[in-house]
Amino acid sequence: MILDVPDPEYFPETFPRNAFPRYGWTEPPRTLPQQAWTTETTHRDGQQGGLPLTTEQGLHIYDLLCRFTGSSGAVRQAEFFVYRPSDRQALEGALERYRSGAPIEPTTWIRAATKDVEIIRHLGVRETGMLASASDYHTFHKFKPGGRAHAAQTYLDAVQMTLDAGIRPRLHLEDATRASLDFMLPFVEVVQKLCAPSGLRPKFRVCDTMGLGLPHDDVALPRSIPRLIAALRSAGVESEALEFHPHNDTGLVVANCLAAVRAGCAVINGAMLGKGERTGNAPLEMILLHLIGMGYFSETQPDFKALNDLATLYETMNEALPPKYPLYGRDAHRTRAGVHADGLNKFWWMYAPFNVPDLLGRPLEVSLTKDSGVAGLIFLIRQHLGVELAKDSPVLQPIQEWLLSEFDNGRQTSVEWEEIAPLVNLSAGV
Fold it and tell me: Which residue of 116, 121, 129, 259 shows the fewest CB atoms closer than 10 Å?
């Protein structure tokens, strides 16, 4: 028999009213880093994935990212292309802002080749990413002669030149989820030895380039993200010197990021609002929501409301988010079901994952369909006019009849407030 209780159980420690949901660890993983944060690649991989930026747009995005992260440390670096004049101008503008106190450090992205190092020697950056393809899919087919040894020596020559310029190298182990540890671990070891005399600690970015990684530790390498991170940690790479850069080709991008953090990787690289090559990079806003849930950024959190302006900017660039994109899509917090609308009317927490209006600056919304019922009308009238109506209010009947006739006659698009507003006659309820 189920016993009643005097008060509802809302699990407030897990689902606080004015904060993002918390994990409520039974026992945190022993490998969890003390700190975790993100780095940004919109100016590099976002562009590469079909988001061409003018200098002005690039700087606008950088400013919005800085506004988002504030003093939280949630986003610490942003990488820039350097091959076109507009990209270099954006980098110069971002560096000027950083020297004046902006919170996100601009870095560069180049191929691990000496001719590319020449481009960045005098740009004023303190760190550069260096594409070091790791799998035999790449080392045997990108290089002539093909093979691991020739590829590795090409990378190492570029690393030495970078060190000579006083720039910290960040090696991007491309296609790591199809790469042999027989290549990656010796390469990492040599890079560490090469960097040691300079005092410039190298960083390593584990790239799940084709989205083939799995978030499980009970599958074999190279696909297991936890095992990859554990192997690099065992090779002496500190958590803070490890980044994870996944793509979403098989739909596991967020799960793989969280698995990487749990396994000891302190840094996730991606793009705010998920821009990037093919299906996109790791959506940093979602990663950070979960990192907050894990207990990070407990003192100062990023301003998630700032990303509404980023979503608007992408609209003006004909790169609007898909309507159902989580958190910031047009329909992310919109219901069309009568049972959900009824729940929103009675106790809106029923159909909200957290305090969406306060934390994201976005309203909970209802669109009217043949299934939204009178409850949808009640919600919209209260939302827009501040009037609470009962389900049997005479105000609602003629509007509901009109709605049903629209759908019975073949309408397939939902009805929004602007269309029914002229039909609302509050005096009918007097």
Answer: 121
